[in-house]
Amino acid sequence: MDQDAYRKTYEQINERACLFEKCLFAGHAGCSQSEKFNLAEREGIHCKSDSAQSQCADLLNLLRHHSRFVLKASHESSVLNHAQALRIQVGGLRGLDQVMEKHQEAIRFVPDIHTLVSNARQHYGTLDSLPFDRIIQQVAAFKGRRG
Asked: Model's pTM, two decimal places?
């Protein structure tokens, strides 16, 4: 299947794509609102809830904004490569979990993204109020696989 046709079909059948898909596929987290599907010989992840996807979009936008220095990105609108996107997703979730659960060290696996983000929103009132200075430390610390 040609890549453009695959991407177009993927977008058509997955209108509510999981925004933490890279993190889930890499085995760093789980989510109660995610649902896997197959297209051709590939796998995708769908979000079951508009409100959950919106909440994740808000968090990712904030993580990206606060991670600019760590990623050495001059503009927020610049396209992130796979490693940078994974670093924001995994590091951001680990940092958020560390803040919410008051762990000394970041955990390796976040069991439920939806619950974590919902609890953070409830605890802090808004995601804008999160202590990003502490959360971004885990974005900086995450290195991914070494090749």
From this structure: 0.88
